[in-house]
C-alpha cells in the first residue's frame, strides 16, 4: 500500500502564522460557513476561532483534511474530492455521504473506506 504524505495537503489548509490547520481555509475549500464546519467536526462555533481551542480544532480538522487529501489523490483534484465528500453516497451507509458520516463522528469509517478502495477492495 502506498503511503500518502499528508504534509503537502495539510500545508494547503494551514496558516503561515500558526502550526495549526486553518478552520477558515477548510471551510472555504468545502464551501461551507464556519458555523457549518463547527457542527460538522463537533466543536462550538466560537472554539474555531479561539486561540485556546486551537489544539482541539486542529485535531478535529485533521481527519477532514486527511479524507480530502486521500479523496483528492484518488479523484485527481481537490474540487472533485470536495464534490465527492459532500454529495456522493458511500455504499453500505444508507445513502449517507462522507460529509454526513463525519458529522456523525464516523470520520474513521470514511478513512477506512478510502483505504480499502486504495488497496483495491471495492465496496
TrEMBL record:
Residues 71-120 form the Antitoxin Xre/MbcA/ParS-like toxin-binding domain. Pfam families: Xre_MbcA_ParS_C. Keywords: Plasmid. It comes from the Bacteria. This is Uncharacterized protein DUF2384.
Amino acid at each position: 500500500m502506498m503511503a500518502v504524505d499528508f504534509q503537502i495537503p495539510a500545508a494547503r489548509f494551514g496558516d503561515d502564522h500558526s502550526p495549526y490547520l486553518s478552520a477558515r481555509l477548510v471551510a472555504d475549500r468545502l464551501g461551507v460557513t464556519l458555523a457549518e464546519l463547527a457542527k460538522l467536526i463537533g466543536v462550538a462555533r466560537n472554539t474555531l476561532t479561539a486561540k485556546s481551542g486551537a489544539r482541539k480544532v486542529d485535531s478535529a480538522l485533521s481527519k477532514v483534511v486527511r479524507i480530502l487529501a486521500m479523496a483528492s489523490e484518488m479523484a485527481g483534484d481537490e474540487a472533485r474530492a470536495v464534490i465527492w465528500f459532500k454529495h456522493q453516497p458511500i455504499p453500505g451507509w444508507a445513502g449517507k455521504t462522507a460529509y454526513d458520516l463525519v458529522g456523525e463522528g464516523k470520520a474513521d469509517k470514511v478513512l477506512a473506506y478510502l483505504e480499502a478502495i486504495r488497496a483495491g477492495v471495492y465496496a
